[in-house]
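Please discuss these two lines.
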Amino acid sequence: MDELNRLPCPILVTDAVGRVLLPNTDMLTLVGHDAAHWRQKSMEDLFPPAGRIFLQTHVWPMLLRENSVREIYLYISNAQGERTPVLVNCRAGEYEHQPCYYWVFFVAQERSRFEAELLKARAEAQRSADRLTQANAELEAVHSQLEQRAYNIEIANRELAVLSRSDPLTGLGNRRALSTAIKRWQSRSDSDALASVLLIDVDHFKAVNDQHGHDEGDRVLVALARMLEASLGPNDLAVRYGGEEFALWLPSADRTQAGIIAERVHDGVQKVSIEGMPITVSIGTATLGNCAGSALMQQLLELSDIAVYQAKAAGRNRTVNSMQAPSVERNYTDQAG
C-alpha cells in the first residue's frame, strides 16, 4: 500500500472480475469515501451508465485479449455525483499472490501536470525512452480518437438496446418492449383513453414439441409471429410474452375493437399447420383506461391471463374477454383436442 501511495496519481487494484481490492490515497481523494467503503464493490460503480457500457463492450474484452489497456478516455463519478474526465490505463498483475488488475487514472483537466508526473513515474520505474516517447504519442492521439470512440459507443448502445427489447427466435419484441410501448402511450394519451391487450396461448404446444420436435415447434412459433404482425395496425405491437405465449398491444382499442382483432388472429392461425393438422390458440383480452396509471400493464396482463385460463377451461380455440363470461364469446371448433 505504501508503494501505491507514493505514486503521484490515483490507482485502483481490482480482482479479475472488477471487484475493488485496494484504492490508494489519491484515488480516494478523487472519488470520495474511505477504503473500507470501496473494498469488494464493483469498480463499475465509479462510472456513469455510458462508462459502464464502454467498460463491458470494449475495455474488459481488450484486457482479456491483451492483458492491458492504454489511454482510454472516460468519465468517473465522485461521492457527490460530479463527473471528472480521466484517461485510464490498466495492466494485469498479482496482488497477494492472486491475479489482479492495476488501474491508473489521469485527470484530463490537469493534463500537463499529469504528463510530467507520468514521465517522472516512468523514469523512476526505469522505463525506456522509447516507451516514454510512445506513451506521449498515444496521449496526443487521444483527442483525435475520441470522436470515433464516441461513435462506437453510440453504435454499441443501439445494438444493446435492440437486443434487450427483442426475442431472438421470432424477431418480435419482448416484455421490455411491451412495457416501453405502454409507458410511451400513457405519457401521450389522455387519462380517459382506452387500450387493450390480447394474450395468445398456443393450444397443446407441448404436444407439438413432443410429437414433432423442438425445431418444428420453433417453426410454428416463427410462423405465428409473422401472422400476428400481419394482423396488426400501424400503431399496434406484437411481442413474444414467453414460451408459446404472445401478446398484442392495441393502443386506443376498446373491447369491441379488441374482439375484432382476436377474430382476425383466429382466422390467421388456421393458415399455420403441422403435417396438415391446424394449430389453434386460446386468447384472453383485457381493456382498461389510462387512468390505471403505473399499474396499467400489470392489470392488463393479469386480466388477460385470467381470460386465457377461462378460454382453456372452456375447451380452447376461443376468445374470452376479461370482463365477460366465456359463454358469450365466439366459440371455435376445438380441433386441437
Observations:
- Residues 324-337 have pLDDT under 50 and may be disordered.
